[in-house]
Design brief:
The protein has two domains: about 130 residues; about 110 residues, no CATH class. It has a two-stranded antiparallel sheet. The chain starts with 11 loop residues before the first helix and ends with a helix. α5 runs antiparallel to α6. By secondary structure, the protein is mainly α. One of its GO terms (molecular function) is kinase activity. Keywords: Chloroplast, Kinase, Membrane, Plastid, Transferase, Transit peptide, Transmembrane, Transmembrane helix. It is found in: Plastid, Chloroplast membrane.
């Protein structure tokens, strides 16, 4: 596989450090933007939370080619969401007061909510980065179905979800279809993106695999058990499990 467009190819250490600084600044900048939109009430709170949900993980994955190949690059990249895990724990336990973060990431403005969805979200991205990195379709499937899929499921479901699912009145046909489509399209998009740098091969079988993972993830998200244990936990678990069966 290719070595990618590192910032300083001749010096992996310097390149990785610059990539770490850049990706951290990008993540913090995006979080800051959505904290301000939440504070100013530009978007309805639930929509603001889902925009954070969609944007952060996908933007971070765009930065992966800046790091070096191999485990060193993966572990350094994982520092960005890894630090966010610590932040979520501190806020959720009440040790750190951060009303802007709570308002932009929680459903009801309760800081204890941070210990569920937002923490699972950060943990999924960190795990995918360390375990699979940019050469595995499993990382793409887990992050894209969590970020784009689950995010658009909520947004579209709230707007057009009048027709509810027969087995879960809290979920709609529109939301589940939107999730499968968004997860699939974003997965294929990142497959092409990483293949441009030689990190993975693109092919019809991989595209079909992404479609299966996205459809199964949408079905899991629509099931009542997913609501009980949190979408941000069940969707990536389903994506990793089915992705492992398909892509391994």
């Amino acid at each position: 596989m290719g070595g990618g467009p590192m910032i300083f190819p001749e010096s992996p250490v310097a390149g990785n450090l610059c990539a770490l600084v850049f990706s951290t600044c990008l993540a913090l900048s995006l979080l800051r933007v959505f904290e301000e939109t939440a504070k100013r009430g530009i978007f309805e709170q639930k929509l603001n939370r889902k925009l954070v949900h969609i944007t952060i993980g996908l933007a971070f994955m765009l930065c992966w080619p800046l790091f070096s190949s191999g485990r060193n690059g993966a572990f350094l990249a994982a520092i960005v969401p890894g630090v966010n895990i610590v932040k979520m724990l501190l806020i959720g336990l009440g040790i750190l007061k951060d009303e802007a973060t709570v308002k932009s990431m929680s459903r009801y403005g309760d800081y204890r909510e941070i210990l569920r969805g937002p923490l699972y979200y950060a943990a999924t991205i960190t795990f995918s980065c360390v375990m699979y990195w940019r050469t595995s379709p499993i990382a793409i499937a887990a992050i894209c179905n969590l970020c784009a899929g689950d995010g658009f499921a909520d947004i579209i479901g709230r707007q057009f979800g009048k027709k509810k699912l027969p087995y879960n009145n809290d979920k709609s046909f529109a939301g589940s279809i939107a999730m499968a489509i968004a997860g699939f399209i974003s997965s294929v998009g990142y497959m092409w993106y990483f293949s441009m740098f030689g990190f993975m091969e693109r092919g019809f079988s991989t595209v079909v695999g992404f479609l299966v993972v996205s459809v199964v993830s949408a079905l899991v998200e629509s099931h009542p058990v997913s609501t009980k244990f949190d979408d941000n936990l069940m969707v990536p678990l389903a994506s990793v499990l089915i992705g492992t069966l398909i892509f391994s």
